[in-house]
Amino acid sequence: MSLLYYHTENTLEAGCDEAGRGCIAGPVCAAAVIMPPDFYHPLLNDSKKLNEKTRYLLRPIIEKEALAFGVAFVDAPEIDKINILQASFKAMHLALDKLQISPQHLIIDGNRFIPYRQIPHTTIIKGDSKYTAIAAASILAKTYRDDCMLQLHQSFPQYQWQQNKGYPTISHRKMVSAIGLSPYHRKTFACVPKPIASPQ
User: Fold this and answer.
1) Rounded alpha-carbon distances, angstroms, from residue 183 to 120, 138, 149
2) Whether CATH 3.30.420.10 fits 13-179
3) Judging by DSSP bridges, how do beta strands 28-34 and 13-19 pair with one another?
4) Domain limits, the chain
5) Three-state secondary-structure class, residue 108
6) What pLDDT score was predicted for residue 192?
7) Distance CA 162, CA 150 (A)
8) Is the pLDDT of residue 5 over 90?
9) Segment 159-176, tens digit of pLDDT
10) Strand locations in 96-183, DSSP E?
């Protein structure tokens, strides 16, 4: 199925998405993007459906063609303080703050959102695979977050963030068990699975 150009016709619409909610380390990253109403690229899709090479190929195209875009992060200590859902909303709001054009309508990937500056919004489950602006936002959020994790890997190579990007892979969890948490781990997350209690 091809992506839809917009949700609301004749409206300046910004798509929002985030990356990194399911990670146990690193920030959550969000992007907001306003694309031209007729923008089309045959490779554009939900970032999760694209390989890394394609995501990085599309990023400069999106940034060049977008009418406006913004990217923002909320770090692990803040995630621990306010929880990951609120941190995701905060990152989206911060990304929207960076837009140089004020949108008239927001389309948000997911089923929940905190209203932003009284701008009407619509939440769309799997919106990143349905709408051009959300798909573009998903690619920016994913690639910028991956870049961040590659930088953090330079300081903490033992966690192999260049490969797992902070997601709870088996090797990542094993390393946490062996050497403990870094300053970039989310301490309120189950970084190491709790042992299963033996039956009495």
Assistant:
1) 37, 26, 13
2) yes
3) antiparallel
4) 13-179
5) strand
6) 78
7) 5
8) no
9) 999 999 999 999 999 999
10) 105-109, 121-124
